[in-house]
Amino acid sequence: MDAILLQVLNGLDKGSAYALIALGLTLIFGTLGVVNFAHGALFMIGAFCTVTFNNLLSYERVTLSDTELSPWGTPLEIQTPYVELWFGELGATMIDYSVFWSILFAIPVMLLIGIVMERGLIKHFYKRPHADQILVTFGLAIVLQEVIKSVYGANPIPQPAPEAFVGSIDVGVWIGMAENSLVYPIWRLVYFLFAAVVIGSIFAFLRYTTFGMVVRAGMADRETVGLLGINIDKRFTAMFGLASVVTGLAGVMYTPILSPNYHMGMDFLVLCFVVVVVGGMGSLAGAVAAGFLLGILQSFASMPEVKDFLLGFSIDQVIIYLVAVIILLTRPRGLMGRKGVMET
Amino acid sequence: MLRTLRTNNDRTLMILFTIIVLAGPLILAPVGAGYPDLMQRFVIYGIFAIGFNILFGLTGYLSFGHAAFLGVGSYSALWMMKLLSINILPAIIFSVVVSGLFALLIGFISLRRSGIYFSILTLAFAQMSYNLAYSVLTPITNGETGLQLDLDDPRILDGATEAGRLASPSLFGLEMGDTAVVPFLGMELQFNVGFYISALILIGMFYLSLRIFRSPFGMILRAVKSNQTRLNYTGFNSRPYTLTAFVISGMYAGLAGALLVCMDPLAGAERMQWTASGEVVLMTIMGGAGTLIGPVLGAGIIKYFENIFSRINESVVQGWFSALPEGLADFLVAVVSPFLGSGWHISLGLIFMLVVIFLPGGLVEGATRILNLFKRLSQARKAPADRADTDSTDEKRSSEGPSSSSVNTRES
User: Fold this and answer.
1) How far, in Å, CA of B221 to CA of B241, rounded?
2) B40, B195 Cβ separation under 8 angstroms
3) How far apart are CA B213 and CA B57, in angstroms?
4) Closest residue, chain B, to A318 (C-alpha)
5) What is the reported pTM?
6) How far is A42 from chain B (nearest CA, A)?
7) Burial class, B128, CB count within 10 angstroms (exposed 0-12 / middle 13-18 / buried 19+)
8) CA torsion sign, A310 to A313 to A316 to A322?
9) So what's the pLDDT on residue B111?
């Protein structure tokens, strides 16, 4: 029982990331009908927003010490971040919590990138065949990835979690289990909660605001909404920006779990495509459910018991694809796919 | 062989293609690409792209997982070399068969869906194969290190002959690495055995694809691309045809993989990664999907620029602009150098995007457009009032030219 619960928890953080990225993909797909191969790049850019913001925050002033000497006899260099100079103790806390501050930094950046991408490039591809849309976003993904690589280098850049969230907590005690039976890293829990909040607010936004209502109507029948005198294109552009923000934030918060590197976007994107297909193309709830489901499934597949059962083959790397194959053979529209979405 | 081609155009194309490929060392030496390794790469990726074009160019099914077949072909060829004989013939035959079977399996599942679903499914399968090769199937693929020839390989047929050193792949004693260097007009022309074996295979494969393009089978594949629903309504079950096309193009990829191993007996999992799949898509689009010569052209151009661009480093760039005033030179170096050297992928991505945006038919379409422009200009000069003539040439162009773009735009 403990082991099962632990695997469920372990699957949550990956599942949250899958769910967030897949949600962004589905938002773009459902509104604009474009499959965005550059979506993984948005996730990666989000992660690198954290790196940039952290670098900016901890920009240091270097002074030479009058009294102390470094081990090789030269005056010791004292490096103090400017933020600490200006704000003192508060500045140090700011640096410590830079991951959270990065969210505020990433939102406008991602919004801008999303809107520029839609208005500058993808807008011109609505009337073109899907193959062209895939190809041009694929090219864009290569360009974005390589630009990040040339700016930040090819090595992963580790980002620390805030001091207070390092380490693990005993989750088992909360639900009345013995101590130390269910220990779980705090940051992963934070990530899951964050994802839940973001997903919840997206759904609430679409469900309870007029803007969301118009967007949903546009997803169902774009032409009619347009004929009613509503500028649906503008709203869809906003949704592209929103999807880009969601994906970027998924990247921002994921940095303490996985050190940002330039190819993380594509690694996740391939899996998230599978998630979207399993969940059902165009279904937001399906994308989220399939994201969590596959994340948890993946962590189950990495259990040693499963490995023993399969005569020593570890299938955690391929389980998602196998499930996708089975689902597509039995339920070709995915778990919650509707009829008439991308049937051609 | 030539008599089987129905029109004179095809015959000329075939003859020209053969001559150009066989004269490869002579043509490529002046542009700095005349060494065996690179030329062999041109030819091998040309085969890969031709195969991909049979699927994508004809049926419009965009596979994002073709590198998987390349990788499977490489691994099976290498295993054949390890177990049976260092001769490349059994290795090539075996890898074509294996990759064909693999393509049959994957195609059977992925072709149940079309459009975006199909692309995503093939991408997922390729990524799965990559992961399998990288970790799970380490006993077969040697995981991260990559599979290579070993001194104590059994090699049932010719294992005992040369003990003590690694054998190099050969065709009945003709070693792939053998090169005859001929000085010519101050250049060194390198005639390489491996290149000519691959080149002959390329010519054969080009002929095969030409025949497929002109066959009734090819017509049905084109019909799938332009309107699959209507094709189904006329009573054709299109899936066997698309599956056949998928398997054929998978076999082409397996053949290319086997030839890569023949050139350099080493197979790694990264050959199956999505970037490799993307590369063949790039080649085909760049040259012109749905055209005969386009994919080979695209493969050559991309491999050439990969080789040339990635070797240019910052000091070379500084050399270019050294004649300019200093501030301007520094500025130009700073602007240009991120796109060259190790960052050449940026320029590749940009060029690719530009081609997709402005020239969806690839370079071949660009060339035809320019040719037509010239034709129209000269006609306008000759007979300004003759409207009917220009109309008929327009019609001719749209019916027989590389019509992938015009078909594309008609789909909504």
Assistant:
1) 7
2) yes
3) 10
4) B128
5) 0.82
6) 16
7) buried
8) negative
9) 87
Contact check, Cβ <8 Å, A130/B113: no
Q: Tokens in use for B381?
A: 């000069």
Pair A256, A157: CB distance under 8 Å: no
**A317 contacts chain B (CB < 8 A):** yes
Angstrom distance (rounded) from CA B114 to CA B103:
16
CB distance A291 to A279 below 8 Å: yes
Put simply, the answer to whether B124 touches A124 (Cβ < 8 Å) is: no
Can you give the residue ranges of every domain in chain B? 2-309, 319-400
Report whether B88 contacts B262 (CB < 8 A). yes
B196 Cβ partners below 8 Å, 6+ apart?
Answer: B22
Going by C-alpha positions, the residue among B261, B248, B307 that lies closest to residue B44 is B261
Q: Which two tokens stand for residue B120?
A: 């995503």
Pick from B135, B116, B124, B75: nearest CA to B99 = B75
The residue count of chain B comes to 412
d(CA B123, CA A43): 19
Nearest-by-CA chain B residue for A312: B136
Q: What is the nearest CA distance from B223 to chain A, expressed in angstroms?
A: 15
Contact A292, A184 (CB under 8 A): no
pLDDT tens digit sequence for B164-202: 566 677 777 677 767 777 776 667 777 778 888 889 999
> Which DSSP category does A160 fall into?
P
HSE-CB for B68 with a 13 A CA cutoff? 27
| Contacts (Cβ under 8 Å, ≥6 apart) of B320 | none
Lowest-confidence segment of A260-274, B108-122, B175-189, B232-246 by average pLDDT: B175-189
What is residue B407's predicted lDDT score, i.e. its pLDDT?
Answer: 41
Q: What is the pLDDT of residue B307?
A: 82
Check if A224 contacts B (Cβ < 8 Å). no
CB B85 within 8 A of CB B158: yes
The predicted pLDDT at position A314 comes to 67
CA distance B55 to B250: 9
- What the block records as the tokens of B274 is 């999505």
pLDDT above 90 covers a percentage of chain A that reads: 17
Question: B170-171 and A75-81: which strand pairing?
Answer: unpaired
Among A286-300, A318-332, B34-48, B389-403, the least confident range: B389-403
Partner residue opposite A139 with nearest CB, options B132, B342, B356? B356
Q: What does the block give as tokens for A233?
A: 């294109």
Interface residue of B58, B63, B116, B284 to substitute, partner A, most A CBs within 10 Å: B116
Joined together, the tokens standing for residue B396 give: 């001719």
Arithmetic mean of pLDDT over chain B: 80
Cα A144-A146-A152 angle, rounded to 5 deg: 100
Strand positions, DSSP E, B237-391: 266-267
Report pLDDT for A312: 62
How, if at all, do strands A168-170 and A183-185 pair?
antiparallel
The number of angstroms, rounded, from the C-alpha of A218 to the middle of its chain's C-alpha atoms is: 25
Q: How far apart are CA B108 and CA A36, in angstroms?
A: 26
Question: Taking CB atoms and an 8 Å cutoff, what residues of chain B touch A142?
Answer: 278, 345-346, 348-349, 352
The first and second tokens of residue A202, run together, are: 């997206």
Contact of B356 with chain A, judged by CB distance below 8 Å, is answered with: yes
Token duo for residue B74 = 């490489």
Q: Give per-residue pLDDT as tens, B212-266.
A: 988 999 999 999 888 888 888 888 888 899 999 999 999 999 999 999 988 888 8
| Angstrom distances, CA of residue A259 to CA of A14, A154, A253, B126, B144 | 14, 12, 11, 25, 21
Interface mutation vs chain B, best among A270, A274, A276, A343, most B CBs within 10 Å: A270
For residue B131, the one-letter residue type is N
